[in-house]
Every structure is written in structure tokens, then in C-alpha cells.
Amino acid sequence: MALTALALNCTLSRTPADSSTELLAQQVLDALGEHGVTGSMVRVVDHDVRPGVELDMGDGDAWPTLRERVIASDILVLATPTWLGQHSSVCQRVLERLDAELSEKDEHGRLLTYGKVAVAVVVGNEDGAHHVSAVLFQSLDDVGFTIPAGGVTYWNGEAMHGTDYKDLASTPDAVTSTTRTLAANAAHLAGLLAGSPYPPSDED
């Protein structure tokens, strides 16, 4: 079964600036590719995603087009840097826009995100990855995504240190192993859900 993944890179840096978040997110897409998953990436800050919690905030809002790609994908890779121990403001805006999915249901009363898998990617130079992934997991679960076992890969540099993930000479073995496990579990779960959807809602 052909599966697809979309990575939303929530770096604060516009293209063509280098992005540690993009590097680790791409490594996740590459690892998913080893399981037959076709992936693509969007740098959200390059698009005019308006603040709000509606499907379309009007006036040139870019979210409806991005949302179409989210809904068309089997796996969402939500990738964010860590600032002040928190996910980025761009990532928060994505979460706020996903809130609108709570009102979108199929003919059986299920959210359109049911059956879709979501994983997290977190990078930063200080601690915060566990907190950020916890926030992302709860938010993504709230709006209907399913989180696989080992659903986050991350890298944190030493405290008070200025090295970025993209500046490392090589990827740490622990990050590589975690990324591969995430990809294997996400692809496996997405395949299962594609072949055996969640049951109809009690509302049906």
C-alpha cells in the first residue's frame, strides 16, 4: 500500500536560510522512504498562514492549501525548533489552525484526521524536547491524529552551548537509531490504519 508523508518545518527562518529543524525532518522523511513512504516538506514560515482557528481565515490565507496536503497525507511530521524551552510560534500557529479539524467529519462521524499518523521532530541547544513533544502529542491527539510508539526524534545540545544540529560533523548514533525506529513504527501504524480504519463514531 502506497503511503505518503508531509513534514511541516516550523523553523523561524525563511528559505534559503539553513535550518537544523529541516535537516532532522528530512532525515525522518529519508528513513520513512526506506519503508516505501513518499515524503515532502513545507517550510511553513515561507507561507502566509494567518492566525486563527478556522479552516480559512480569508484575505490570502495560505493554510487551506497546506491543509489539503495534510489531509491527503497518511503521516504528518511536525518539526519544530526549541526556543525558551517551548515549541516555536510557527508551530503554535499550525496547532491553532489544526483546531478547526474538530468540526470536520466524514459520513460516519469520524474526524478527517482519524487514521492519520503524526510524529514529532524537535531540535534545540537546551533542554525542552520532552516538554515540547508532550505538548505536540496532546494537541495532535486532540484533533484526531494517532501517535505511534517512539513517535518523536530529537536533538538537544549541551546547556550554554552554541552548536546547532546542522553544524555537527555527523549525526549522533542515538539520533539515527531513534529516527529509524520512529520511521518504522510510523509506517507500520499508518499501513495498519489505512487497511483497517477506526470504527464509525457513536454519533452516526
Automatic annotation (TrEMBL):
Pfam families documented for this protein: FMN_red
Name of the protein described by the UniProt record: Flavodoxin
InterPro entries in alphabetical order: Flavoprotein-like_sf, FMN_Rdtase-like_dom
Domain NADPH-dependent FMN reductase-like residues, every copy: 6-150
Organism of provenance: Terrabacter tumescens
Superkingdom of this protein's organism: Bacteria
